[in-house]
Amino acid sequence: MLRRLAVFASHDELAQPDELIAAHQIGNLLGENAIALIHGPVATGPLGTVAETIRRIGGQLHPIDTTPLERWQAEVGAVADGFLGLPGGFGSLEAAFDVWTWGPVGREQPLGLLDQGDYYSALLRHATDEAVDRFVLESQRGRLILTKDAADLLRRMSEYRPPETRRDAPFDDD
After folding, report:
1. How far is Cα 160 from Cα 37, in angstroms, rounded to an integer?
2. Collapsing DSSP states into helix, strand and coil, what is residue 35?
3. In 10 A of CB 22, how many CB atoms?
4. Number of domains making up the chain
5. Helix (H, G, I), strand (E, B) or coil at 132
6. Is the residue at 57 inside a domain?
7. What confidence tens digit (pLDDT) does each residue in 104-153 have?
8. pLDDT of 53-69, one tens digit each?
9. Is 19 within a domain?
10. Over the chain, what is the mean pLDDT?
């Protein structure tokens, strides 16, 4: 269940139309579904649009103003139920996949990428298998959700369940 979502978007005031459309869509969906937006101390550009849309609907904002960067990342990772990248939110696959290292060990949060304008498809198309393998463990691949539809992305992220492990159960040799 998603209660708090860290959204990554461009801070550029001269954002592309796809980025602003995506920001409005996500802001509306988060506000309507009572999902709090986790963001840094400054929300400008498309991220500011997400925050303003949520605020207009009466939704919750959860700014985190902690320094240094490593402490901010750890706090975001500890409180976020998932991470969502809007077009322009991550400049590289490495930056997107890095969010999985922010939370406490053993906590698995989904990473949703809204692919409007084929932003993330283009990054994935140019990535080599070796590069993806270097940043994404096999066990993490199910946590990556990529789609062009904002409502579908939020639904799939909400439905994400970490795989069950049987580490506490003894092995049956029968």
Report:
1. 18
2. coil
3. 30
4. 1
5. helix
6. yes
7. 877 889 999 999 888 888 887 766 556 555 555 555 556 889 999 999 99
8. 999 999 999 999 888 98
9. yes
10. 84
Q: Do residues 39 and 45 lie in contact, with contact meaning Cβ atoms separated by under 8 Å?
A: no
CA distances from 52 to 3, 27, 30, 45, 58 (A): 18, 8, 12, 10, 10
Q: Distance between CA atoms of 85 and 9, rounded to whole angstroms?
A: 6
Structural tokens at position 16:
């592309």
Please, what is the angle between helix 17-32 and helix 45-57, to 10°? Answer: 30
Asked, for residue 170, whether it belongs to a domain, the answer is: no
- Per the listing, tokens 């080599």 go with 128
The pLDDT, as a whole number, for residue 53 is 96
Tokens 């005031």 belong to residue: 13
What is the extent of the structural domain holding 81?
4-157
163 in a structural domain: no
* pTM score of the predicted model: 0.84
Position 100 scores a pLDDT of: 87
For residue 155, count other CB atoms closer than 10 A to its CB: 16
What is the number of alpha carbons within 13 Å of residue 55 lying toward its C-beta? 11
Domain of residue 35, CATH code: 3.40.50.450
